[in-house]
């Protein structure tokens, strides 16, 4: 099993619709490590770490999001595991403050 880390930016109507909570709950249900946060530009930023196939499935789900959202774009980049250090202490997946 290969572990990957992916940095994801989601644009559209993704704030004020429960998108961050949906990401956190979905990622946790998949057993992924990482975090999610709103950005001041109206986008949502996430970091997913785990098995390559599981991370890919999570990213595919981000293209749809919760029912109240409208996703216009999902941009995915490879990332380094050191970004996981932004998580809360003793948390596998965190919702971080807006940046």
UniProtKB/TrEMBL annotation:
It catalyses: an acyl phosphate + H2O = a carboxylate + phosphate + H(+). Keywords: Hydrolase. Its EC number is 3.6.1.7. The active site is at 20, 38. Pfam families: Acylphosphatase. Belongs to the acylphosphatase family. Residues 5-97 form the Acylphosphatase-like domain. This is acylphosphatase. It is an enzyme of class 3 (hydrolase).
């Amino acid at each position: 099993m290969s572990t990957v880390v992916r940095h994801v930016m989601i644009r559209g109507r993704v704030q004020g619709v429960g998108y961050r909570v949906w990401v956190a709950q979905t990622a946790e249900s998949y057993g992924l490590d990482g975090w999610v946060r709103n950005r001041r530009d109206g986008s949502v930023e996430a970091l997913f770490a785990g098995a390559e196939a599981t991370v890919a499935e999570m990213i595919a789900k981000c293209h749809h999001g919760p029912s109240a959202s409208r996703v216009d774009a999902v941009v995915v980049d490879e990332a380094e595991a050191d970004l996981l250090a932004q998580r809360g202490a003793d948390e596998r997946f965190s919702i971080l403050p807006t940046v």
